[in-house]
Design goal:
mainly alpha, two-stranded antiparallel ribbon, 4% strand, 156 residues, 2 strands, single chain, globular
């Protein structure tokens, strides 16, 4: 493909922009922002995660997760196991309101993913995720300097 760079970067940017628009639109019904989606979803799947675990699972930085958790706690969606000052390693639990909202968020996500994947077979979907994982891993390695001097590992 002659214009691989343009095609790849434009498509990735469009996908990201549309995901953010969908998050914003769908979460407004719950009084949440798009930034809260990943935290709510991960906590719905696994109660008792810590903020550092959420950072890892959501692929978000500490500041973004911290802001989300402050908002979610203030609005009554989550509670911390303890009220100690340094809560970054403290387990976080959804409140009753949070569990109900988390269930609805998970249902929205499942519906959106079903709509996206309706034209793919299971094998095609598995390949897509494998390719995306490979691209992400390669780009992370390149930004970490592990592929110094060689962009042969990833040819956009």
């Amino acid at each position: 493909m002659e214009h691989r760079y343009e095609t790849f970067t434009v498509l990735v940017n469009r996908i990201n922009r549309n995901i953010n628009r969908i998050k914003t639109r769908e979460m407004s019904a719950f009084g949440l922002r798009g930034a809260h989606v990943s935290c709510m979803y991960q906590l719905y799947l696994t109660q008792g995660l810590t903020a550092s675990e959420l950072c890892e699972l959501c692929a978000e930085d500490k500041a973004a997760v911290s802001r989300s958790l402050v908002y979610l706690e203030k609005e009554g969606y989550i509670t911390f196991q303890t009220k100690q000052a340094k809560r970054y390693k403290t387990p976080i639990y959804l409140t009753e309101k949070g569990v109900e909202t988390g269930r609805m968020v998970a249902e929205k996500i499942d519906g959106i993913l079903a709509g996206i994947g309706k034209t793919m077979t299971e094998d095609e979907r598995n390949n897509l995720y494998r390719y995306l994982t490979d691209i992400s891993s390669t780009l992370e390695a390149m930004t970490a300097g592990e592929n110094q001097g060689g962009n042969e590992a990833c040819s956009l």
